[in-house]
Amino acid sequence: MKDQLNTVPPELKGIDTFSKLLDTRFTIPGTSIRFGIDFLIGLVPFAGDLAGFLFSAGLVMTMARHGASGQVLAKMIGNVILDTVVGSIPFFGDIFDLFYKSNRRNYHLLEKHYGEGAYQGSVWKVVVPILLVLLLVFILVIWLVFKVFALTWQLVVQ
User: Fold this and answer.
1) Vertex 10, ends 34 and 26: CA angle to 5°?
2) What is the largest CA-CA distance in the chain?
3) Can you tell me the distance from the alpha carbon of 134 to that of 39, in angstroms, rounded to the nearest whole number?
């Protein structure tokens, strides 16, 4: 692991610090459970999840600008999407956020990418399934919005 740390370009060392701040900066007293700002802001419904998504997306974009391969970026985006979607579920999502730590996972992917040359190659075998899941989530959201609108309209008409 130490060798991997030495192979990450110096300009990306700040990603390590920022991902620790987001995911593992603090400890629950009397336990070994670590959490960060992402967990804390995620406790605020919707707005916290959106803010956490924006922080995570910013980290991934920084990694992309510094040459991370398409495959490692697709895996990182998958981590961020999973964290955002599951994390937005009330109560269960907060518990999930406490343990999943997508920003640290992404930093470790970056370490493996630079340290071992892992995750090289085509992005499509990772992106296509992610796009299919996103399409299904989008359809589900549209359906839910339609149902809520229809229910609201029925209440207004009565």
Assistant:
1) 10
2) 68
3) 23
